[in-house]
Amino acid sequence: MYWEKEIETMDREQLERLQAVRLRETLERAKKSVHYGKRFAEMGLDIGGIRTDADVEKLPLTTKDDLRENWPYGFLACSRDELIRMHSSSGTTGRATVIFHTTRDIGAWTNLLARCMYMAGMRRSDVFQNMMTYGLFTGGLGFHYGAEKIGALVIPAGAGNSKRQIQLMRDFETTAIHIIPSYALHLSTVFTEVGVDPRRDTKLRLAFLGAEPHSEKMRRKIEDLYGFRAFNSYGLSEMNGPGMAFECPEQDGMHIWEDNYIVEIIDPMTLKPVPDGEEGELVTTTLLREGMPILRYRTMDLTRIIPGPCPCGRTHRRIERIKGRTDDMMILKGVNIFPIQIEKKLMEIPGVGTNFVIILDRADYNDSMTVKVEVQKEFFGGDLRQLEALRRRIVEELKSDILITPRVDLVEPDSLPQSEGKAKRVIDNRKD
Amino acid sequence: MISYQLSIFAENKPGRLAAVTRVLAKEKINIRATTISTSDTFGVIHLIVDDPARAEDALTKAGMTVSLSRVLAVVIPDQPGGLDRLTQLLLTENVNINNAYGFVLEGHRKAVFVVSVDQIEKAEALLEKNGFQTLDAEALSAIEPFHYMKY
């Protein structure tokens, strides 16, 4: 039941000693990067003085802005020759952050994914259909490598093409899938359409749900529709991607692998750590990353540590489902989108007024985005065709940037809440 | 002569046209003709009124998005072939009609046809040369419409 029993069930004291050793190694490596070299010098940080994981608080926090300012190589702690892979945060073009991996990094990440999937019950006898985008997004290749390491038969199906997905499941008797939860709900309607009952007509028994926060109710619904057990997967590209935290058979919180990461929950206002059990922002430090170590990364995800041991015997602490964000990032069909991206794009288009609102809806298990955009008073020339052309242009420009085709509604000037102050830019109507 | 058409950008929802007419009623502005073009969630209300400048002012003050554009208000005989003569003439010079609507004048003898075209000066000269009467804002405000027709 354990992929690596010794590590997964290591007693806390030993685990913390291991973390301290790996943290020192990480700091030695991080010092070589342009960014941390400079930060450590500015702070007068003596890395020799960091002895236990309790000293972590003395280290600088790292934000997405730091990654952006040092784009693309400012965080590298090795020569470029040692790199074998790059990945990038999903969905964004202008604000994408890039993460580089060495051979050892890919090996460690792959091992974590194998550990996660094995924990959830996947074995070499399984047929694993990976229904995630392959490419810059970490969800595709990450799981692919992990499943191969377990020795399962991997079907690299990629995202989309629902009917072919169902055909593959039937033809090759898929037992396990990796899928975005909102897509799992949508796919169930396609099953109905083609007259296939996933409970009766497929061999599905396991699912890994990732790339999108979802509620317990949504998980139960998906499990019910398919007749399999579904496990929540958490990760972000800056911390490798999936494999970072995963549910065990107890399905009660995600074990975050503390041999690979130092885990803190901080108050996003004071930036001070909060005790286990209290909600705050997840902050993590890589412990095994060679090419691009990242210290105390602010994930912007809100969660809490579930106090107490897990009945599964693993000693690595568990985090709860992600409750929200400390920033305004939206996740739509597994794509991360910031309102600022939309704002930037809109403001480049002549004829667009000052205010806009983004509305997220879910109908028939399909997420959609509507952007209401004010028209500039001076732009209006009395002609409907001119407005239609503007509307189409906005759709095209946004689509090229956020990779999702939004619905765009033009509205009268000054009819939306003002952009000054704390205007609510995003209205999320999506329910479970 | 050139006349003026008021165009108002409006979301396609209850109360938008009512908001426009409320302002005009309060200002005692007379509407001669109206047409609305819609595109799903939004549209444009076109109006011919007796005092376009004052109407534009009042609607703008009420916070509306208004545009005043030049159109031709052409007097045509209210009889079979009346409109056809006008459109055929514009076609001979390849003038494109973007929008058109009209109203019949009292007594059923004549109608006014409002055309928004791509080459207004050329169209105006063409019409006058061929004996069509075009009305300016002042002339429009003086006439009494009987009922509207919309194309």
Content of β-strand of chain A? 15-25%
Task: State the CATH class of the largest domain in chain B.
Answer: Alpha Beta
Instruction: Output the CATH topology of the largest domain in chain B.
Output: Alpha-Beta Plaits
Helix percent band of chain A: 25-40%
CATH architecture of the largest domain in chain B: 2-Layer Sandwich
Average residue pLDDT of chain A: 92
How much helix, percentage-wise, in residues of chain B? 25-40%
- Strand tally of chain A is 21
CATH-defined fold name of the largest domain in chain A: Rossmann fold
Q: What is the first-to-last residue Cα distance of chain A? A: 32 Å
Question: How many strands, which pairing sense, and closed or not: the largest β-sheet of chain B?
Answer: 8 strands, antiparallel
What would the principal axes of the Cα set say about the shape of chain A?
A: globular
Structural category of chain B is alpha+beta
Report the uncertain regions of chain B: none
Which two chains touch over the largest interface? A-B, 18 and 22 residues
Number of strands of chain B: 8
Question: Radius of gyration of chain A, Cα only, in angstroms?
Answer: 23 Å
CATH superfamily of the largest domain in chain A: ANL, N-terminal domain
